[in-house]
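User: Hey, my collaborator sent me this sequence without any context and asked if I could get a structure. I don't really work with proteins. Can you help?
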Amino acid sequence: MYAALAFHQDGNYKLWCNGHDFEYYCAGMQTGSPNAYVSLSPTALNTTSRYTGADKQTVETHFTKLRVDPCTLHVDMLDRTFSTSVGRRVAGNNIIDWEPLGIAGSCVAPATPGCDTGVTGIIDLSGTSFAIKNTSQFTVQGIK
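Assistant: No problem. I've predicted the 3D structure and written it out in structure-token form, which is a compact way to encode the shape of the chain:
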């Protein structure tokens, strides 16, 4: 991507790859290995990942841009460059202060009184040129 652009400033660029031409926000242009991001609409619902643990500790991460490979159109769920998080939780010896894109979870059994088992993850692409593939599958794990 870097070699194809004569400009070396972070910003919005239209990129063409494998027949796709979309506008991306390109970050890290001065590094020689920039990344492409889809800017989420400020009027869209919050794109949010949330996890609540058994001890009721909650981590919520909000995304304003999503990292995308412009040739494959795959999203990097672990990129948190354009995200903010609130809260933290402890898992074993680890302190977790953010959640990956698309994650929603609760570490409690549905019958536990007063526990938040209705957490949701939101991926809102409205206002962009992108959509989640209709053959995408979301996985439920743990107690159902």
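In plain terms: The mean pLDDT is 82. You can pass these tokens on to your collaborator as they are.
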